[in-house]
Design a protein that fits this description.
Elements lengths: L6 E5 L4 E7 L2 E6 H6 L4 H4 L15 E7 L3 E6 L7 E3 H9 L1 H15 L15
Antiparallel strand pairs: 1-2, 2-3, 4-5, 5-6
Length: 125
């Protein structure tokens, strides 16, 4: 059974969600990381995840509990359809570095970028 955080803090200025699980367990999840790993169907697809890109500037504008089992996060790009269960949030905390590395590699392979105002062009010479 997943643990519920003992404290949840939304830092709008730094665009970070801070989750505390105990005196020595504090995690800082950037809004961009949460947005590109949203558990929504829009991101996860129906069995085939849909690569999110251009989200470097996205921020969190709100959060609210969804029953006793999840948080509903609202992002400033309008995305608000993913329910982040306690179990999923804990996995994001524990696997943040590996998940981020996989995401950056997927962007590179797809020729996409984190910056919404930038596109990658491949020249065929």
């Amino acid at each position: 059974m997943a643990r519920m955080p003992t404290a949840i803090n939304l830092h709008k200025a730094s665009k970070t969600l801070r989750l505390t699980y105990g005196p020595d367990e504090v995690y800082h999840l950037p809004a961009e990381f949460l947005r590109v790993h949203s558990p929504s169907a829009e991101v996860q697809g129906h069995g085939n995840p849909i690569l999110q890109f251009g989200k470097v500037n996205v921020g969190l504008v709100g959060l609210e509990p969804a029953g006793q089992y999840a948080l509903k996060l609202t992002f400033d790009d309008g995305h608000d359809s993913g329910l982040f269960t306690w179990e999923y949030l804990e996995q994001l905390c524990l696997r943040q570095d590996a998940l981020w590395a996989e995401y950056v590699e997927a962007l590179h392979k797809a020729g996409k970028t984190r910056d919404p105002s930038e596109s990658v062009v491949k020249l065929m010479l």
